[in-house]
Amino acid sequence: MNSASEQRPSPGTPPGDGRCPVPGAKVAVVTDNAAALPSAWQAEFEASGVFASVELPVLIGGQLYTEDEADMLSSLVIALAEGRSVTTSRPAPGQLRKIYEAFQAAGFEAIVSVHLSAELSGTLGAARIARQDIGIPVRLVDTHSAALGQGLGVRAAVQAALAGQGIYDVAAAASAAASDAQVLIQVNSLETLRRGGRINPTSAMLGTMLQIKPLLSLHEGKIVTVERPVSAIKARGRFMTLVGDALAHSEASTPVLCIHHVSDPHGAREIGETLVDRYRPDAQLILSELPAVLSAHVGLGTKAAIVEGPTSRPIAHGNRAAPAES
């Protein structure tokens, strides 16, 4: 079993010395920290010189957090436990424009900007504004995903860029990898999703009254219900089965299994190691706290699994995401 310990992303910085740092690399890749990249991946991508990431701001009790992820997560957990107001926002277009301009100055011919589902965030809208007047093409990719589902798309884009592929192939690689990734979310309560406007208030109220512990996924970028177990024990059992089946039938040679959590690393490790041992001993296990910008909307007690695909046992059936925006 291959295992990576607790991971938290950090912001990337684009090159500024006027040279492409990788021979043959023509396309740069930009993303946002909702991709939940493992720190080892983030460091590797930053070292390549073709990659940068922008932080998504979180507002906790009236205080804006934009940079220190560890401090943000600690404050967020306390706020969620106390029921205080937590909101999120898209990045300022100027932040993305600065990154795009730096890559242009570094000699890149194009940029592929790979982001969190537009159904969940306005980040893609900020990127549309930011790319105006940039002197090289900036192609936007809506991954229709989040967390490491998005992150697998980012990894594919970086790999394609380092292989010297052009803007359309880099964008297509990102879209395909994100679309193939399987996402399953087990929430402890629907209340946080309701407060954030991510689910229907009536559905949230009924779910709470009936003690439903729904298993959620993403379809066309939207949060959808996969199953509605009526107890936490049944929800965990179905979570393990659905994720395990997807993992066992993944076509990736050494598939990634990522278990995200909100302030519960020991619980995440137990779930991840059980799934790998039971279903796919050759899988690469990654344990990762959800970024604050996502944790703010799902609440304490949440677990999420990301399985690298494609797989013949998809968790939630749906159409492949569109390759990219023009």
UniProtKB/TrEMBL annotation:
Matches recorded under PANTHER family: DEGV DOMAIN-CONTAINING PROTEIN DR_1986-RELATED, FATTY ACID-BINDING PROTEIN TM_1468
InterPro entries linked to this entry: DegV, DegV_C, DegV_domain_contain
- The record lists the organism as Kocuria carniphila
Family matches, as Pfam families: DegV
UniProt keyword annotations, A-Z: Lipid-binding
Q: What is this protein called?
A: DegV family protein
Domain of life of the source: Bacteria
**Signal sequence interval, chain numbering:** none
- For bias kind Polar residues, which ranges apply? 1-10
Coiled coil, from the record: none
Q: Which SUPFAM superfamilies match?
A: DAK1/DegV-like
Provide the residue span(s) of the region labelled Disordered: 1-21
